[in-house]
Each structure stands twice: as structure tokens, then as C-alpha cells.
């Protein structure tokens, strides 16, 4: 009897390991891969842009003296993309890893487009509704659905360690995609919630938040540039992404704090820059206030500006103030 029990336990262990291995093999067939011929955006550090970004941040701090940013609470990255073959950039704490809030939805958008292009995911009316709501309305519920589609996982109860390992391997699919293209210091494997994560979602976060989504402004500016320049997906795909992120700061609204009016768009409104075009993805929580923006001006400026702020979520002035300083600096340095 003891011998049979031992054989049964061994068989069970072998089955668990084979299950994890099978899950990984099945997941491999649905891996997200860069488009054929993908070339990463190469950014050349620019002292001139560095001076513009630094002076814009200093001017913002002088304008809002009551807002004190401690180390680890403010980061920004600026990219001049007028010449796709010579992209110049600058950063202010650009490698600082912060919780991105809804800015992470840009990454899920890009990953989904690659899966659609490769035929690993098929568009449907419901999926189209989810993508639109995730980016245009910044719906967390839509984002949860999109991440399920991308990774073949779903929320539910906590799992034993071996089963959880198989689940977590699949959930890391978007991370593997961006890692394969050289994106570093990011974590993009968690759903966004209006309140909190429960069950396996909290287990995936390691309960105390050690595995929450984390982004840098450098990585996010790179992704925005690769969308703008048509690097991250095919022409049709990047055009669809741009359309979803297009904002009209002068459109009538009942919510002056939305993505078009309450972040970088506020600078465009305040300066009455009627002919300026804006594409963006904002993110905000009770602690975070971020914006990833691409701007084209009537006088030919084309730039990406990503700003993350932590522990100052109710301060609506700093992001548009930095953007305003950047506009002035770029125009002076034509």
C-alpha cells in the first residue's frame, strides 16, 4: 500500500510539472512577437533638449512653490521626432520606475495590435468596443478584458504554487514581448482596477505590491515614438492606435479633467493653440498623475513629452506648465 501511494505521489508530481511545461508550450504558440523588420527607435542624447527640459521643470517649480517634489516623485522624457533618422532626446530621472496607472494601457494596445496583425487574435465587435473604451475612456474594466485576451488568463481564486506558475507564465506574455525588443525596467503584466485586486490577481502582485505594473518615462516615450513613427506595428495598425489616442482639447466637455483637457491638453487650451494636434494617454490615481503625449504644432514642432508625478495627484498645474516651457524652448532653438 505504501509503495502504491509513493508511485501515486510521484505520478502526481510528474503530472504537475508536465502540466506547467504543456502550458508553456501552448502559450508559446500565442507569443507576441515584433513585426518583421522591426527596428527600435534610437535616441541620441541632446544637451540642447536637456537644457530645455531642465529649465522647464525649474520654471514649473518656481511657479508652484508649494508643490515640493521629493526624490522619486517626478520624472520626464522629451523626444524631438521631426527627423526619424536622428531622434534627439533628454530626460529628467527618466529611468525612475513608477506605478504608471492607466498609461500602461498604451502597452496593451500595442501588444494587441501585433496579435491582430499576426492573426493570433481575431477582431470582433466586442473586442473593438473593449479597445476603444480602454484608450478613449480609460476604462479599467475594458483593460481587464483586453489583458485576458492577450494572455489567455482570467481572474479568479488563488491557485496552488505549481498551477499558479503556469498561470503567471502566460500572464507575463506582454512582458516577454517588450523585453524581446529591448525594453528594460518595466513591468506590464497587471490589470488596472477602480478599487483593488483580489484572488489570483493579488497573488500575482505578490500581495504587497512587489509585482505591480511599473514604467519609466524613457520606456514610455520610446513606445509613443515607435507608435508615431510606425515602428511598433504596420501602417494600418499604428494609424488605428493614433486615432484612438487623438485628443481634442477644444471639444466641448462636461469633464475638464479628462485626457484631452486636464493634462498636457490644458497647456494647449490656456495658450489658445487652436491648430496644435495632440495624441496622448494619461494616467491618474489617488497618488499618481501622469501623461504621455505627442504634439505637433503649426510651426513644425513634433515631439513626445512624457511626465510622471507621484504623491501629487491633485496638482493639475505642473504637467501643463512643463509642457508650456518645452514649447517655448523648442521654438527658441529652431
Question: Layout of SSEs?
Answer:
Blueprint: H1 2-29, E1 43-45, H2 47-63, E2 74-80, E3 87-92, H3 105-117, H4 125-135, H5 140-151, H6 161-171, H7 173-180, H8 200-204, H9 217-228, H10 235-245, E4 246-247, H11 264-270, E5 277-284, E6 288-296, E7 302-310, H12 318-332
Radius of gyration: 22 Å
Low-pLDDT residue spans: 1-20, 22-26
Largest sheet: 7 strands, mixed
Beta content comes to: 5-15%
Helix-strand sequence: HEHEEHHHHHHHHEHEEEH
First and last CA, distance: 85 Å
At the fold tier of CATH, the topology name of the largest domain is Beta-Lactamase
> Percent of residues in helical segments?
40-55%
Specify the structural class.
Answer: alpha+beta
Strand line-up in the sheet with most strands: 1-3-2-7-6-5-4
H/I helix tally: 12
The chain-level mean pLDDT equals 92
What is the CATH architecture term of the largest domain? 2-Layer Sandwich
Oligomer: single chain
Task: Write a concise synopsis of the structure shown.
By secondary structure, this protein is of the alpha+beta class. The chain has twelve helices and seven strands. It has two domains: 150 residues, Beta-Lactamase (2-Layer Sandwich); 117 residues, no CATH class.
